[in-house]
Specification:
Blueprint: H1 6-24, E1 36-46, E2 68-69, H2 90-98, E3 102-113, E4 119-123, E5 127-132, E6 137-143, E7 145-153, E8 157-169, E9 172-184, E10 189-193, E11 197-205
Parallel strand pairs: 2-4
Antiparallel strand pairs: 1-3, 1-11, 4-7, 5-6, 7-8, 8-9, 10-11
Helix pairs in contact: 1-2
Amino acid sequence: MPHEHKLPRTLMLIALFGWCLGMAAVAQAQEPLPNAVQIEVLVFEYVNGGAGSEAAERPGDEGYRDLYVLSEPAGDGWYRVIPASKQRLAGASGVLGRSSRTRLLLHSGWQQPSRDSRRIVLRSDSEVHTSDPDRGMLSGLKPAAEGWVELQSGRGLRLQLSFDHRRQQDGELTLFRMDQTRVINPGEIQYFDHPAFGVLVRVDSIDEGL
């Protein structure tokens, strides 16, 4: 039944939002536009989610080759994966990891100049078996979560993201997609919802010197 997981999901979200609100309370409501920011992204799936939601016909990966890939290993520098010691969404990651109703797919972050607009491609380590004979693709492995995030600055900050979530359901591969754009303030934690999965993004002002 599609309503069986609604209450537990609601309680889980209340716990998650409670953590987010507690962390965001220390941020100023209106910060001046920063020169540099740290962006952190969490992507997670609802274990029993997606019922009744429309599946995407094909992935949005045609332009992934033109996106910017973060440098590794983790360390300091622009567009380099931040180390765990600098992650500010570790608490949310713990809430999602402890819940039996969610599964963490991706957790990554980086630092960049706020006025340098680049689409950053992100992919989960977990993979699913997939094939697309109509596009001439043989059976293989694809990330369970894959997409991009872009921060644009002008009079304020605008966050744009696009993610595909692949899931095996009843022996068949189902693809879900999320495309969102939102005006944000530094220090806020943004939650983007989909029946099958969710995305948390935190953007913080940082000192420009690294």
